[in-house]
UniProtKB/TrEMBL annotation, chain A:
<dbReference type="Pfam" id="PF01979">
    <property type="entry name" value="Amidohydro_1"/>
</dbReference>
<keyword id="KW-0378">Hydrolase</keyword>
<keyword id="KW-0732">Signal</keyword>
<feature type="signal peptide">
    <location>
        <begin position="1"/>
        <end position="18"/>
    </location>
</feature>
<dbReference type="InterPro" id="IPR032466">
    <property type="entry name" value="Metal_Hydrolase"/>
</dbReference>
<dbReference type="InterPro" id="IPR006680">
    <property type="entry name" value="Amidohydro-rel"/>
</dbReference>
<feature type="domain" description="Amidohydrolase-related">
    <location>
        <begin position="346"/>
        <end position="390"/>
    </location>
</feature>
<dbReference type="InterPro" id="IPR051781">
    <property type="entry name" value="Metallo-dep_Hydrolase"/>
</dbReference>
<protein>
    <submittedName>
        <fullName>Amidohydrolase</fullName>
    </submittedName>
</protein>
TrEMBL record, chain B:
<protein>
    <submittedName>
        <fullName>Amidohydrolase</fullName>
    </submittedName>
</protein>
<feature type="region of interest" description="Disordered">
    <location>
        <begin position="106"/>
        <end position="130"/>
    </location>
</feature>
<dbReference type="InterPro" id="IPR032466">
    <property type="entry name" value="Metal_Hydrolase"/>
</dbReference>
<dbReference type="InterPro" id="IPR006680">
    <property type="entry name" value="Amidohydro-rel"/>
</dbReference>
<dbReference type="GO" id="GO:0016810">
    <property type="term" value="F:hydrolase activity, acting on carbon-nitrogen (but not peptide) bonds"/>
</dbReference>
<dbReference type="Pfam" id="PF01979">
    <property type="entry name" value="Amidohydro_1"/>
</dbReference>
<keyword id="KW-0378">Hydrolase</keyword>
<keyword id="KW-0732">Signal</keyword>
<dbReference type="InterPro" id="IPR051781">
    <property type="entry name" value="Metallo-dep_Hydrolase"/>
</dbReference>
Amino acid sequence: MKRILGVFLLLVALPLQAHNLVPGEKQTQPILLQGGTLHTVSQGTLANTDLLMIDGRIAAMGKNLDVPAGTQVLNVSGQHVYPGLVALDTTLGMIELEQARPTNDLREVGNVTPEVLAHHAFNADSDIIPTLRYMGITHAQVVPQGRLVNGRSSLMQLDGWHWADALEAGPVALHISWPRVGLNSAWWERRSPAEQRKANAKAYEQLVEVFETAHAYHEGRLAGTQQQVDQRWEAMRALFQGEMKLYVHANDRRQLEQAIEFNRAYGFDLTFVGARDSWMLAETLAAESIPVVYGHAYGLPSRVDEAYDTAFTAPAVLAAAGVEFAIAYPGYWDSRNLAFAAGHAVAFGLPYQDALRAITLTPARLMGVEDTLGSLEVGKHATVIVSAGDVLNQLTQNIGYMFIEGRALDLSNRQLQLYEKYKQRPDL
Amino acid sequence: MKRRSAWLGLSAVAAAGVSVLALADQTTPARGLHEKNPSFVALTNATVVTEPGKSLEHATLVVKDGIIQAINSNNRAPEGARVIDATGYTIYPGFIDPYSNYAVEQAGTPAPRSRGQRPQYSNAREGGNGSNAAIHAERNWFDTVKVQNRDAKGYIDLGFTAVQTARLDGIFRGRATTVSLADKRPNDVIYQAYARHFASFDKGSSKQQYPSSLMGSIALIRQTLSDAAWYKEAQGKQSMQGPVEFNAALDALARVQTEGFVFEASDEHNLLRAARVFSEFSVPLTVVGSGFEYTRLNEVKASGVDLILPLNFPAAPDMQGQFAELDVPLADLRHWERAPGNPAALANAGVRFAFTSHGLEKKSDFWANVRKAVEHGLSPTRALAALTTVPAEIAGVADQAGRLQTGYRADFVVSRGDLFADGEIVSVWLQGQESRLQEMHPASFAGDYSLTFAGQELTLTIENEGRMSGSLSQGDTRIRLQGVRTEDSVLYFHADLSSIGIAGVHRFRLQPESLTGFAGRAQNAASELITFTATRPEPPAADAPSKATAGSPEYVSELTWPNLGFGMRQQPEQANLHIRRATIWTADDQGILTDTDIIVRHGLIHRIGKNLSTPRGYQVIDAAGMHITPGFIDEHSHIAISQGVNEGTEPVTAEVRIGDVVNPDDIHIYRSLAGGTTVAHLLHGSANPIGGQGQAIKLRWGQDAEGLKFKEVPWTIKMALGENVKQSNWGDMNTIRYPQTRMGVAALIRDYFQSAREYGQAQEAYAALSRTERRRTAPPRTDYRMQTLLEILQGKRHTHVHSYVASEVLALMDVVEELGFRIHTFTHILEGYKVADEMRAHGANASTFADWWAFKFEAYDAVPQNACQLMEKGVLTSINSDSNDLQRRLNTEAAKSVRYCGMSEYEALKMITLYPAMQMEVEEHVGSITVGKHADFVLWNAPPLSAYAQVQQTWIEGRKYFDRQADLARRAEVANERQLLIEKVLSQGSEAKRGNRNGYRAEQPTWQCEDNHDVWRWTEFVEMEGAH
């Protein structure tokens, strides 16, 4: 009991201290989450079940587990235990304030910057990060922005001293913003349809040329004929070696189709990001085993004649067709709404278990860390959250505990502290 | 023999037609000899259409000295007149284009302001001009008339003989002039020096910042028309601030109530907006339309304006590529199909209109489109009126042009056949002189000829089916002709005659001698000439010319309100309802009522109770298992606004009104209904300390702008503080407008309200004057900007203040308390939690975001517990969207206060229903399910704040505006209609490609608070990242 109290103190007392939170300490003794509802993701939901964490791993799950001596026991009966949520396609830690340029490290100069690594700009002390943890997110993919070939992303755990400490996996993928297709009809667009098509074709040609060049470079390096190192093409070699994924940011159906065609020649490990129209191609994506990081769970219809809930129902369509997909909430401060975005998809037809998987196990798989993250399984990292109620619903989500590899985290944040501060202001 | 003489007559006319300046000039001394060319001409035996619906057969039109001298119904020409046989021809009055830029100064196209240039806030003052560079009311465009032959030809080719013209630049464009297209001195071509005033909403070449938005343009028009009336009244009087200034622009507008305006509107909504603002001052209006009038026909008719219609029907959207239709809205496909029916729809509705060639990308499409309009149901008589009598009136020349009548100008069009069917214009007469477009009696060479050539009997066959071709044959030997063509009634070809025993290639010419006889000559390579004759039987008389009649088109598209995929086929009926056994979240003191009934009667909540019996004739909704909430109310919205949400130019623009620019076509109205929202408070943006007037709307999808307005809501205005108003994120060039600091913001607000108070005092002082003093004293000028601020001081208009940080909020409350009024509602108010006590003491409300932060420095201390803390401290708080996305899901936004700080669900619901209603001072009517209030409610399939809740139905005043089941059915219908139209486009081939390329509406952007670009100067569009 004392120990439980101890952990509570750890979790609750710290918020009253400086807002610059201290990362959690390495797990030194077993912790038992006792009697909660375990949402394992991989093996269904286990009511009234214990979960034991030892040395940063899930050591056991079951009813009335025997625990080693010295175990901290946390009674979580009536509460819900989930794997940590994984936010894909974010710019967390790369920007602090949108309109303060010094804080913005999103986009490098030029259309072709495969050489940049997002984690190099990741600020582990960003005040934004704890506000995502507060909402159950333990990991975030950080992604460089751009216009064509943007750079490489990594997966960060959200409890690091600095980026190297926070780096969970990476670089994971090369990110491409697929060239525009079709026509823009916004009021400020004054280019004729012909001019727009020409510009679209030119951008596509540039992309083709980039890949041809990178490929030739790679072959030249293998053959020893390319002596000098070009940072850009060097950065892309892992693609040709099958060691890095290709993440294509594309929304329009025609972009998706074009990218699939394009990739036939290369056979890269392709994933679509954003993928607004992916529901139109669900059968194809399932047949070709192309995963989707769906970024429009709350999206407005992109065309005036589309049904109001087109973007809301897309996850359900993808699930029904058997497409492997994650749900993302692209952004930085706003990515904290990830769980609610998944809940919204449930309101529009996505089975609950699929929604949960789309923000835990599938993103872990897409990041190549499914062996350690994404579900509650014995042997995986003890990266676990405990919520008073259903984590996907605003009305019930309330994260009481978060562990990353067994480290108990401080769930406080700048916002909570400001709130606490002004609650203490005496009435006028 | 008769036709023969016609040919001879024609060549004489051709010779005469070249002459210029045939009319004696009245004031210019002769240089050299006095030219006295004859001008007495009679066109005989024609069908003379004297005016729409009236024509004379076998009539003779006699013209002399540029005037119609007589129209004789017998077929005789007066002695001495040059006679032109017009047998078989139709003569129409010359056409008048009432909207052009012919022969006067052209509008300049200014280079856009570059990033290195500072904004320009005022205009050059010269000659007593107005205070805005888009006002050119003092210009009289006859001043700049110079005849432009090349431009004239473009009009004459279409049959026009006169145009009303002005420089098409700016908002008040000056006085147009109506001129003949004849090639004469300006003195002779100006038919009406002072025609209509021209105007538009587009500030054109003006580099002055104000106005940058549509509502700014409307406000400028309103102020200017008001000023003109004031200026007129003030003449000969002293103002209370000294002598009345001289103002040429206002002077020129002194008689607009009789002179009237021609107004160029880019769409039917702008037509209605223009009609409204000009009618406030009883100024008659003729509007240059857009072709979209049929989509709001009743409103257009009710506006009472005359129209000038461009005939720029659009080319079909491009459907060549696979899935190209993904970029094509159904609205465009519908418009492609129905735009040619617009004139017919207007005619049937009894709206008077003229045609103009203005706006056509290819002038040569003009007649094809007139005929298309006829095929789509326009009567040829109305079409002719639109080219003659109606534009003559609009252009102020109805007493001299637009019909064929003795004493009128000899301006007319000679056509072969009915112009509204398949006829063609052969000549256009301007002031009694012919401008020949085609030969009047072209020889037709098609047919079989017998000829004797070099002793041989040959048969010549000429065919003319688009391209001319032919052959010479003798028995079975047939020689194909090369190079067959005609020129000046002579046929030319060459042929190799070797196969009939005549050596070499011969070049032939053949010309008619009589109806059946032809004279020919051939030349061989040795230059030997062989003459011959040929005969051809008289060709059969041509078919009787087809007569145009109005067609009756069949459309596969629907017409809905608004005219897009999810538009309404009709307004929903107001139903009397018995809703049974629902869980009712009343949002008032009744709390949550389970298993309870509601009776809705005449659009109001009539009864609430358990087990109520169904009144006779009431529709029953079984709502067992369903939840009902009041419709959501959004205190801060920017949907349904046309052409600019900010008049962010001057620091105070209190005169602009969102109510002037409500856009009823915005699909976000429907999408928000689908999210349970029924009321939106449309606010001006946040680009200046005192922005524009707000407009509350009910989301009555399908209504026009006026029908959307929630009229019970008291007047409001947007104010703003902080980074936006001090232009912090606008780039380095925007550092000259006062204020640039929060200190300046407070000082500026203090200054304007002080001035408004003094403005009110001046009005009171004038009202207190004696009758004699008033006769000597000009009334105070109505200043809409100050008037609006005065309304705030008087408590008639409520302030909604965009605000973030504690310091600025305290400063504003400090300033306005000193001025003697209270801030009504702080909106955004992200640091409200820091100053909640002070806000409560001041009496202010708060309307905030659920969880937005970190998008700019002033949002860095935002917390998602803000609403809880404000409510805890007793500040009435609502959650707003400021976003067309969030407006669809205010429920889950409100639920975040449950998540972050434990607010009760019920209280959270009130933050998007009752409390925003109170903040708009309209809780008497909406905001809760309470007997006596409007029946604005939403049916849900789950507890309304849950992530899993889905709207099933949304009702406003007992009318069902959204029904999920109907929506699901509608999707299939939209898909089907799209498919039919796509097939129609693809099956039409090249005809679908003909027409204007940019003939569709541009998509209105998704406005946000900070969107502050000049809608008239799109090149300066700056996409400002990070909104709100």
